[in-house]
Every structure is written in structure tokens, then in C-alpha cells.
């Protein structure tokens, strides 16, 4: 086990403090969630921006270039200062594009819309940003095994990073409710995969119990080191914008790990002078899995839970573990929470895909949510908006193919069967396209 730095773990409920090397992910006194309290760098404002901006150009021959080429560890002073280089488990995660697509912006009715595409991470989702930090910490504390509950993306990411680190991984997923692309990744990377007869919330309960009783290091988003890694989605997009904060950041919300992480990132960015203004957060849930949105509509007076049901499996969560953290992030940023229907999500996905960008269904909730907020006047014309796409298009090919098989979908692209002759191709080319596909 490595020596601890000046960082510490702090309970968000009772304020109890623990060593950052403590393997527990909840408070032993009250059961509350923990946060990582880091020692902030002495650099501020322009000096800190210059430090971060100078790192992406490191040459392969430079010392520690593999570390600073990571879109997570480039910001190490705000993620986990003090961790030793030899403990870092990285695959150059992050460095994801910030895309402008006029046809998508027009459909969303948000002229100044940009897309932060986290599907470009090594395993195809934003989870890699948190997992590089969680698994690096597992190496640092000498964990014998790592585990998680998952709807698919977390298990794929944990399996990959555990394989790189050489640590056994155990994942619990709801049987029959995980997209094949994600399950295939988990199996291929070598994790011991347990198919649980229940939903995600049942899986997380079992994962937490096994962590407490069997000593396996838990890598779900309740793990505070996961949250610190996911803050870099925001830090990186701010850097890509020249440290000029947008007016809105819109993103899908399930277990609320990103909601919490985004709030932490923006607080750190303001506190260290990286940005001068605070964007508003908009967390978007699927209508059939919207406990956080229901709580928001009641002013967060009561924590809600539901039996989740949605085609967007990545956010199919009925009782978000990071609820309290999420509430703080929304309140701190004067944010909003809303839900959109499955048809809205699938239509937004078809538009995003047709723009050559592509994403998994849950990702499209962000663009569907931006459209809703623009139509009701919450997002005003001219405001700068970044919508976060959390996963790759091939994460859930089944839903994609099912959508396009239906010729009645407004933006569908139904395959055409033809005979093996040139004339058949000529006839297809002469016919009008069956869809505008977002043009």
C-alpha cells in the first residue's frame, strides 16, 4: 500500500473524515456517501490553465507522456494529486471530440449546440474516465479484486481496466436487460460475469453487500474516486472552449454519478479560477425511469423511487445511488431536471446517427432534452449549449436495428431488398428517399 497524500475522504452526511487509502466507499459511522477532498494546487486562473493547456502536446518520448496524454490525468491536480505514477492504470482515456452538427442543432432548435461525444473513449463510454481513477486507486491500496453492478457500460469499462491492471473483476448485471454489445465487451475483457434475476437496483444492493462482507473493492459511481475521474468530462470541454463556460450543459441522468461529478467539476473550476461564470446543468431522464425528475418537480422535498422501464438501458435505474450528490449539483448550478419519452429519445438518436455522429439510446436523451428546454423557453435562443453523448452507437445495436426496420418511423432508414441485377439498383436510385434523415 502506498503512502497517503494530503487528500482525505469525507462523509457527505455526517462529516466524518477518513484516510484516502481506506477501501470503503461509504461512511462506517452513518452509511453516507464519501467524497474525495483534495489538496488544491497553488496555481490559479491563467497559471493553472497554462499548466493544463501545455500538456496535450507532450511528445511520445517525453517523460510520463502516456500519463499526460490521458484526458483524465492531464488534469491530475484536480482529480487525484499525489498518486504515484506507477499506480496509474490508463489507456489514454478522454480526449473526446466536441462536435458541431448543424442539422442536429436545427432539429433540437438550439442554434449554438455542441456535442461532447464520450463514446470515443477506449471502451465506448464515459465510464472509462471514472474507471481509470477507481482502478488506479485499487492498485494503490492493494485491492485483491474489484467489482461493480452495471447496466452494461460500467461492467465493460471495469472489465477492461481490471484486465490492464491484472486484477480479478466480478460484475453483476440484470439478466436479460443488458445490451449485447456491452455484455460482449464484459465477457471479452475477462470479467467474471454474474447474471442476476432482478434489476440494476438489486445488482447494486448485492454488490455493496459483497464489498462490505467479502472485502472486494467496489467500483460503482458511489465510489468517490469514480466521481473525480468523471469531473474531467467538464474540465476537458471547458478547455476545448478556451475556458469560456457555456450557458448550459445537458446530459442523460441515471444513477446520477455524472450529475454529481459535473457539480464537483464546476465548483473546482470556479474555485481555482479556471472559469468566470457558472453554466447551468440540465439532467435528462427517461420518462419510465425518472425518479430524480419527479423529486425535482416537488422541489426535492421527497426522494422518489420507481420501477424503471425504458429502452435507454444505460439510464434504466429506479433508485439513484448518488441522489443527494445530484441534488447539490442541481441546486449549486441553478439547474433543472426533466424527463423525455422513449419515442423522443429514439427520434433524437435517429437524428444524431444520421448526422454521422451516432450514439447509444441513453445518450440521445440529452439532445431530446435540449429540444424540450428550447421549446418551452428555458434555453433561450442564442445561448451556448453543450449536450453530452455518453456512449457509442454500437453499444446497443439491437434497438437501432429494430427502429429502422419500421418503415413508419419518421426518421427511419428501412433496408431495401433487391434482386441481384443492376436494374434493381437503378430503380432504387430513381426513387425519392423514404426519409429526410434530419436534413
Keywords:
globular; alpha/beta; six-stranded mixed β-sheet; 13 strands; 13% strand; 17 helices; four-stranded parallel β-sheet; 439 residues; disordered C terminus
Description:
- This protein has 439 residues and is α/β, with parallel strands linked by helices.
- The chain contains 17 helices and 13 strands.
- The strands form 3 sheets. A 6-stranded mixed β-sheet has the order 4-5-13-10-11-12, with helices on both faces. Strands 8-7-6-9 form a 4-stranded parallel β-sheet. Strands 2-1-3 form a 3-stranded antiparallel β-sheet.
- α11 links the parallel β10 and β11.
- α9 packs across α11 and α10 crosses α11.
- The chain starts with 7 loop residues before the first strand and ends in a 9-residue tail after the last helix.
- The C terminus is likely disordered.
